[in-house]
């Protein structure tokens, strides 16, 4: 059918011509959607402000696969949750939300993925509500989204032989903790103490009580491992994550 509806999260948007935008969204039913939003940069646009990255919308589309680069057209949007406006007054939260949206854009495909959609919406909602520290929300989202995509790490037993932990090293290639015997030949390795392993497990499991009990040094160590694991599987790092790290380093300078 030429028209369809979906509940979508806006991932990103960029300028097209003088008044239009190309908007990338992830839909509950249709997966990733790229569509033209015509005239939304004009001050008279009825829904231009709603198409901000991070917002949750009910949207209607017109399918036109031939011409216009094969893009659909956004014909109507209704705001379900306006998260974008709740990010801009806090730079740490804003960069965290940007990292979540950038990762989703890189990771998700055109096929429907209801669990990925729910994870994305839940992370944006938690950031908007300041439900947990922003850095922990980002790291938890990255680990859980990668797990749903088929790259679930383990931070308890050895990923090669199954030997119970705790272990002191993580292999990016094998997908988590490795014991001393299996560490050689396991590819790129990173060290992690018991507290860091516990935090990584908590972030993957969504155990916020354990995660929020961690100290700043442990969180920083976990963030480095999550960033490296994400980069390994996405084949390049997330710009928003690096911006956030630079901001944290700058604030830590006396």
TrEMBL record:
Keywords for the protein's UniProt record, in alphabetical order: DNA damage, DNA recombination, DNA repair
Span of domain DNA replication/recombination mediator RecO N-terminal: 1-83
Tree of life domain: Bacteria
Pfam families in UniProt: RecO_C (PF02565), RecO_N (PF11967)
Protein function: Involved in DNA repair and RecF pathway recombination.
UniProt similarity note: Belongs to the RecO family.
Protein name: DNA repair protein RecO
Lineage, top ranks: Bacteria, Bacillati, Actinomycetota, Actinomycetes, Micrococcales
